[in-house]
Write a structure and sequence with these properties.
Layout (H helix, E strand, L loop, with lengths): L30 H13 L9 H24 L2
Helix pairs in contact: 1-2
Amino acid sequence: MKTINHKPAYPQPRDFEGRTPEKFGVGGMTIRDYFAGQVISGLIQTPHDYGNKDQIQSCAIGAYIIADAMMEARARGC
């Protein structure tokens, strides 16, 4: 899979010295993280054993796989 540019989900303006939030440590979550969070919301609606650590990790990994696919589709202009 190609590297995806991880831009902020909620871009913030530069500070009074012209620095971007990433330069002074408050960049926030990426669009990829936002997409994965939205996916996880849907995934947890289905019955699973969320007390099982392996199931939880599998669900989290799946959310990022779907988020990556969403990012790729977004980059293609879908």
